[in-house]
């Protein structure tokens, strides 16, 4: 039996030198996920998300997709990034837009509670040229916070900054949320 995984050790796994690749690290993470220890600080789902990220960085999109799909089946930790956000991005990278939209719609219906999900989805759609869908994600994130007050102020600011970038690209003028982002930009640029 292997020793338990400590969170800091896993999140510090990055290629060190030319002999170690993202593919190597992904295979290591997949092996850890396949052999969980009861005292692991990182869940199987978390290990699979990390493996998927490394596989995506290695250009192995099919294996990344598999890891994210498996991670979605192991969603039990609210601190683990939403695997479906990564899956949507990998599907879009493979020009499988219809499948990505289906997963995106499923994720919308689940009403995520993590503000990072709203930003990640918005940025993925923005990166792939669907600014309307991207704007929908940040607007839903802000609406959720308005209804529940669940997000930390820094999370709301992060959503506002993403939203303002998208709205600017769509040619919209600034509204009150965009003013939050503009104020942040002015603070850091001046």
Automatic annotation (TrEMBL):
User: What protein name is recorded for this chain?
Assistant: Tetratricopeptide repeat protein
Q: Which domain of life is it from?
A: Bacteria
Source organism per entry reads Ornithinimicrobium faecis
């Amino acid at each position: 039996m292997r020793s338990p995984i400590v969170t800091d050790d896993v999140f510090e796994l990055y290629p060190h030198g030319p002999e170690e690749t993202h593919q190597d690290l992904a295979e290591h993470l997949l092996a850890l996920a396949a052999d969980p220890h009861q005292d692991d600080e990182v869940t199987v789902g978390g290990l699979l998300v990390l493996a998927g990220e490394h596989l995506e960085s290695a250009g192995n999109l099919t294996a990344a997709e598999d890891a994210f799909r498996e991670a979605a089946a192991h969603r039990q930790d609210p601190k683990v990034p939403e695997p479906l956000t990564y899956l949507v991005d990998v599907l879009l990278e493979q020009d499988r837009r219809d499948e990505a939209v289906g997963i995106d719609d499923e994720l919308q219906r689940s009403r995520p509670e993590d503000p990072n999900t709203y930003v990640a989805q918005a940025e993925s759609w923005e990166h792939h040229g669907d600014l309307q869908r991207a704007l929908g994600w940040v607007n839903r994130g802000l609406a959720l916070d308005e209804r529940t007050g669940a997000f930390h102020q820094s999370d709301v600011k992060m959503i506002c900054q993403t939203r303002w970038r998208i709205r600017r690209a769509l040619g919209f003028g600034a509204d009150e949320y965009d003013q939050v982002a503009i104020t942040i930009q002015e603070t850091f640029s001046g």
